[in-house]
């Protein structure tokens, strides 16, 4: 019996994608019986000081644009052609910005190995025609592959420095989950697996809405009791929302890194909290603050708050989510921040 | 049928006791059909600038020593004689420091109304002859009364300012829980009830051990992923510990204010976190820092860490609680703080 070893492609090469590439490059060498040594990383080609980013990465083993000063293992190969990058690959790691997923899947459709397995590290939900969709489900459907997810309190720069972190892998197929865990876990990056894709993935999206509420508390100079209560109520609404739309969402998921831990980290640091704090403090609009404070980066929380609101409105369930609704009203309806606390 | 209205006594008059007295004084007036208007507050007598504290409180309606600048309702009567304070009382609110509970119960035994009901706001566990005991159980047993508990993210000074907070009331007898909820809840102090005394009460004690671990993270300048992971792992050990020693501990309890919310607040602020941070940063012993930084207040977390360790050692379960054990070793065994992260 000959065993075909898994060939890995990382689709995406931003900050998080590059950190994951570092982990994967090292791990495939640890388990040569399971994985092929050479790992592809699909890189959206761009010029950095007149030179192609893929060439820089392949020559210097450093993603100078998105993860400077960190050496990638020499078995990471940057490839600007998406289809070439996935050729013969059996494990696909999706780690690119939300807005590029549709185009990427369109190109990949019909062009990947039939027995490929995918995992999504993309945070966010998909709203299509007013309905809720998970990005992992979109990948599964479009490519006809099993798709797991990985979410947690995972600030990329800290993991790049090998500081202790945890993460949660949500799966439907346990064998695939164990394979991805082998590929992604390190002593400083501990992964637990749970059979609840929807719960894990929704945590990653909805936490940003709660972080806006936490930031409003900070901007209003609210006490620690209040902020802790807001985070707790937010977690309860995340759980309720997930349950409402998906079967099989588990309580335990919210105790995992993707749940409370990611929520705690996001409500302490993170840009959603920061912009909301500035809004509560200065009264400037979220759009203006996003423009002046974020250096071209986009706020996820406001977009998710809008999408969640559309979905809840359609189902006539807005009143059951006072925190989500208050965030929506503060961001989009000019409602005063202090109202948020009165509605809880 | 004549209805006997409930007479309330608050046993304790520190910072938290005085804040609770303010709430209770107002609430009994809101529900005159249920509660008698006059409320007793047992005050351990002391002299403040040459005058008795009880006299000051009864004349000025202000606990100048433990809650200055906050007026208590005029129906709060400060009483220095413990037995007089509980005469005819049917609702007993225990809110005094842990170390005074034994003496207090000894005096009260056989001297309270047979149909009295109690609630404990005291945080901490009791270790007797190496075994674990809950303070609410000690009260129940000694006085032969049903005893509920109230715990949560409840920094007293913030509640005194009527900032929004939540709290969790753990009960065995639902009717009594509803009565205490009526007595204690306000629009800014929201109470949820749950049939799990042990879970609620252990949260209030064990969170201080986790706060020491969180403070160590801060002192080591650990990243946000790491601190969030430590808090999460701490919550899981709290849950596991509670389950190990008591039946009927519920998952939901840890989602309540007494669980995650109190833990978040305690791991952000609070003296256990602060002293642990200073220890990790300066290397000075906990005892020395307690002496120099706390102005005579005592650290709960180190004591609880010691008690928990004794109990786990006796049952040969230390290895199943790496975080609790690491905190114990850092505090009492001179183990380096950085070891804490390596053990997780």
Automatic annotation (TrEMBL), chains A, B:
PANTHER family the UniProt entry points to: GLYCEROL-3-PHOSPHATE DEHYDROGENASE, GLYCEROL-3-PHOSPHATE DEHYDROGENASE [NAD(+)]-RELATED
Protein name per the record: Glycerol-3-phosphate dehydrogenase [NAD(+)]
Keyword match NAD: yes
GO biological process, one term: glycerol-3-phosphate catabolic process
Lineage top rank: taxon: Eukaryota
Residues holding substrate: 123, 271-272
EC number: 1.1.1.8
Pfam entry (one): NAD_Gly3P_dh_C
GO CC terms in record: cytosol; nucleus
Catalytic residue positions: 207 (proton acceptor)
Residue ranges constituting the Glycerol-3-phosphate dehydrogenase NAD-dependent N-terminal domain according to the UniProt record: 7-176
Positions that bind NAD(+): 12-17, 44, 100, 156, 271, 298, 300
Residue span(s) of domain Glycerol-3-phosphate dehydrogenase NAD-dependent C-terminal: 196-341
PROSITE patterns: NAD_G3PDH
Catalytic activity from the UniProt record: sn-glycerol 3-phosphate + NAD(+) = dihydroxyacetone phosphate + NADH + H(+)
Similarity comment: Belongs to the NAD-dependent glycerol-3-phosphate dehydrogenase family.
Keywords of the record: NAD, Oxidoreductase
Taxonomic lineage of the native organism: Eukaryota, Fungi, Fungi incertae sedis, Chytridiomycota, Chytridiomycota incertae sedis
InterPro entries: 6-PGluconate_DH-like_C_sf, 6PGD_dom2, G3P_DH_NAD-dep, G3P_DH_NAD-dep_C, G3P_DH_NAD-dep_euk, G3P_DH_NAD-dep_N, NAD(P)-bd_dom_sf
